[in-house]
Design brief:
This protein has about 130 residues and is an all-alpha fold. It folds into 2 domains: about 50 residues, no CATH class; about 70 residues. The chain has 8 helices and no strands. The longest helix has about 30 residues.
Length: about 130
């Protein structure tokens, strides 16, 4: 697989990985081996970053689109993410609220759909 795909599966920012990793395709067996026994550089990146946008968004509790709206375009480290969580800038509070509303709406729609399916799967009463 391409290095970008492998980095994504490992949850790391490709540009922060060693040059050899960035330029070498990996097989699934190679990826599994790295997961089983991660090299020091991988453990360091997974713990302290810098992190790719999807990981940043998850750690902050916002969407990737929310990061874009806040103009967060660079990879962030664990310390930078922690600083944002502690300082709670207005954009982060707003985006976390938006994300919570989106999740609540998705749950509501899912429950409604499950109820509709349950109602249509009920046996009909026979008329005499």
């Amino acid at each position: 697989m391409k290095p970008l795909t492998a980095a994504s599966k490992l949850g790391i920012y490709l540009q922060a990985a060693p040059e050899e990793f960035q330029n070498t395709p990996l097989s699934r067996a190679d990826l599994d081996a790295i997961r089983r026994e991660p090299p020091a550089w991988l453990s360091e990146l997974q713990e302290n970053g810098p992190f790719p946008k999807d990981v940043i968004a998850r750690k902050l509790g916002v969407s990737i689109a929310g990061l874009a709206r806040a103009e967060v375009t660079e990879a962030l480290t664990a310390a930078q993410i922690e600083e944002l969580l502690e300082s709670k800038p207005a954009w982060l509070v707003k985006e976390r609220r938006t994300q919570a509303e989106v999740r609540a709406e998705a749950e509501r729609v899912k429950a409604k759909e499950e109820a509709r399916r349950a109602a249509t799967n009920r046996p009909q009463k026979l008329r005499k």
